[in-house]
Every structure is written in C-alpha cells, then in structure tokens.
Amino acid sequence: MPTPVTLGAHPLTIDELVAVAREGAPVEIDPAAIVRVAAARALVEQLADDPDPHYGISTGFGALATTFIAPERRRQLQASLIRSHAAGTGAEVEREVIRALMALRLQTLASGRTGVRPVVVETYAAMLNAGITPIVREYGSLGCSGDLAPLAHVALAAMGEGTVRGEGEGDDEMDAAAALAAAGIAPLVLEEKEGLALINGTDGMLGMLALALHDLDTLLTTADLTAAISIESQLGTDAVFADDLMALRPQAGQAASAANLRAFLAGSPIVASHRDPAVCTRVQDAYSLRCSPQVHGAARDTAQHARMIATRELAASVDNPVITADGRVESNGNFHGAPVAYVLDFLAIAVADLASIAERRTDRALDPARSHGLPPFLADEVGVDSGLMIAQYAAAGIVSELKRLAVPASVDSIPSSAMQEDHVSMGWAAARKLRRGIDGLARVLAIELVTGCRALDLRAPLQPGAATGATRDVLRVVVAGPGPDRFVSPDIEAATALVLSGAIAAAATAQISSEDPS
C-alpha cells in the first residue's frame, strides 16, 4: 500500500496529491488540524446565535445573500444548497480527478479556515480511504465561486445521497447511502456554514493541473528522447545542440532539452557515420529537427511557470466566507479560478506545439524525398505495403484537435446567479481540455517512437547510440520491428501505454546514468 499522506500539517505537494488521486494512497489528518477546526467551528456557532445576519451562516447564498434564515431552517438550507448545486451533466469525470478534488477540499477543511465541524473533516477522509468515489459529471462548473457543481456532487454523497462508485473504475454504480453504510461511515447532516465550505474552491481545476504537470514531467523527457531518435534515424546532426550554442540564448528550458538531446545521442554510430563533411553535404537540418530544444524548452519553461502557480494554490485555503487567523469571518474573492485557468490554457498551447513538431518529425521519416535513404513510409515491400503511412494520419488528426483545444477557455465569461457572479474563470473547462491534450500528446509521441525505432532498425548494420538503442529494445518487447504490414493500432496503443507509464523515458535515462562517470 502507498505511504499515507498527512493533510492539515503542511501544503500538499503535487507528488502527494497524485499519490492520493492516482495511486490510492490513504490520508491521515494531523491532530493539530482537528484542534484548529474545532476552534473555528466554535466561532461559527457563536455567530449562528447572533441576531445580526452573517453570510453563509444565517443567510441565503449568492443573489440571496441578504435573506435571513431562521435557526430552525438552517439544516434545510445547507442540504438544499448541496442538492440544488449538484447539477452536473454529461460524461462521468475520471476517478483520479474526483479523488484529487476530494483531497484538496479536505486539505482546506483541515486548515481551520472554513468553520466546519471536525466530523466533516473525518467523513471526507474516511470516504477517500474507503475508496468511495462520488459520481461527478463533466459539465457544471464555471470555475468561479469554486468548482461548485463537481464539489456539490461530492458533498451530496457525503450526505448519503446521489450515486458513487467503489474501488476501481469498473465498479457498478451504487447509492451513496449504501456505500457509506458498507464502509461504516455515518452520512453527514450539515450545519451552518458547512454547505458553502464544501463547494467553494478551485479544487477540481487545481487537481487536474497537478495531474497534468505530473504527466508532463515524463512527456517532456519523452519528447526529447523521441526527437533524438528521429534526428538519429534521419541522419541529422547533434552539433547544433552544443552547450556553447545554447548559452548564446540563456533560456533554461532550452538548455535542459538540448542537454537531453546531447546525452541521448552521445556515442551514436549512426550520428558518427555522417559527421565527416565529405560524407554528408547537408548544411542544416530542417527546423523540426534542428529547433527541437527551442520548442521543447519553451514548453518546459511554460510547465515551470504553471508549477509555480500550482504550488502557490496548493498552499491556499479557499472558502467564502473564510475564518481569518484573528477570528474574523470575512467575505472574499479567492474562489475565482483565474490564476489556475490561465496556466491551464498556457499549457494547452505548449502541449499542442510539442505534438505539432513531433508529428512533423514523424512525417519526414516517412517521405523518401526527405528521409535520406529510408524506404517510402518505412514499408517492407514498397507498393504492396503501406508501412506507417496511416499512423502519421492519426498523429496529424490528433495535432489538429490539439490546436483547437489550445484556444483558451479563460478568455470567456458568462454571467450567472442573477448577475451576482458576473465574471467567471472557466477554469474547469480549461482543465478538461488540457487533460485531453495530455492524452493526445502522449499518442503523438508514441507514433513518433514507433516510427523512429523502425527507422533505426532500417539503418542496419549501423547501430544507434546506447540510450536510443535501449529505448528501441524496450519498445520491441511489445511492438515488433520492420516487416510486412500488420494491424497497426495495437502497436500504437502499446507504445502509448509505455510512454504514459514513464517506461520509455526511464529506459533512456537509466542508460545515461549507467554511463555517467561521475
């Protein structure tokens, strides 16, 4: 079982959040956090008895914020808030996203800034640890006042209403009440302020940002690797990646990408075979080969900026109203998703361009006019076999979609709540399209990997370098080498699984590490 993750003691890291969301790591609540939660709750209960109205405690919500609610109706108010806001529609959201959302909301509840009772914190932790995943629908959040609908579906399940799934994606849908009973968890009966505290946060979009950044760590290295394989197999040069050339333009991401390319191509007999100007008369490689570190590096820098924003947001306690450190209950606008939405959109641009340049490198390998001696479409029997012709079509189709998904969601805003919420972030939508973009990028890199490794094999008897050769060997376990046409789709799916798992990047980096004399 994965190591437990403690909530309420320090800001969550991206790796901790991924462990809970994707790997099923259990959560524990820091005992000091429960003390803070109880103290904040005592303040809320004092205000609940105050004849003067306090937003979210003794009033309605949103456009109904001036409506005073009598004490005997406040439980109904909280339950009605959750039921009415659980208005999602569309396809189910992935389990890992819902678990990330739940962990982030639980982290905020444990901060002692929301005014919920300790039992609310304990119930959310118990649901996560029992593997109870509320069914959340794809559409419903505008990314302002928090991810209201997605968070409300989770809160509804904690109340014993709505539907959930148990451990694993394939479990049957079941009533939340039955799932809670089976796990020995009592349904929540919400008191003053608690309904708002459960739905006012950027947790959904932030969870998807954290998962995307985790995946991009692997995909950025993989992109450098597949570029190296393309450069090597298309008889490109590594001279343009020299450290002193990169230093002339001091961009950190570019330098890191170029360093990877140098390492992945180091000692390659194929590269060495045409290093002599008498053998190779080309002056320059095409941009998709020569400018790989510039494009990949820009994506790296974009991801670094997004990580900075995500790290700040992971340290936040977002609610409205919020309990301050000196005991005030204050309305605020921290639930607005703009900071997260902007970087989600920024990453979508980087992802689309990474896939675009990878597809161009793939296309060059298949064109005998540009591949420098490789057969058309890397076919076994030209004219009878089509080789990887349609694999490139698939990559092109994905890239076209990624370009559409790069159009920002955060520039849009549709007013809601009778114009009280008159500017919204659309951050949830930005996160949803980035998730699709990450999946598309992995598939385009997998197609470049399959193409590049076949091209390496076709350069025999020349052999690839140690890192690229090790990568090809890992791929060959699940994807056969050159030969007559066969069913291509399983090869692409198998390669995509290797890319997403990190096995491809790990094979190359392990080879580099084993050869590092330091």
- How many structural units, i.e. domains? 2
Q: What is the general shape?
A: elongated
Query: Can you give the mean pLDDT?
Result: 93
List the helices and strands in order. EHEHHEHHEEHEEHHHHHHHHEEHHHHHH
β-strand number: 9
CATH architecture of the largest domain: Up-down Bundle
**C-alpha termini separation:** 35 Å
Radius of gyration: 26 Å
According to CATH, the homologous superfamily of the largest domain is Fumarase/aspartase (Central domain)
Describe the sheet with the most strands.
Answer: 3 strands, antiparallel
- The CATH topology annotation of the largest domain reads as Fumarase C, Chain A, domain 2
What does this structure look like?
The protein has 518 residues and is mostly helical. The strands form 4 sheets. A 3-stranded antiparallel β-sheet has the order 4-6-7. Strands 1-2 form a two-stranded parallel ribbon. Helices cover 56% and strands 5% of the residues. It has 2 domains: 197 residues, Fumarase/aspartase (N-terminal domain) (Fumarase C, Chain B, domain 1); 277 residues, Fumarase C, Chain A, domain 2, CATH 1.20.200. The radius of gyration is 26 Å and the shape is elongated. It starts with a strand and ends with a helix. It is built from 20 helices and 9 strands. α9 crosses α11, α9 runs parallel beside α15 and α15 packs parallel to α17.
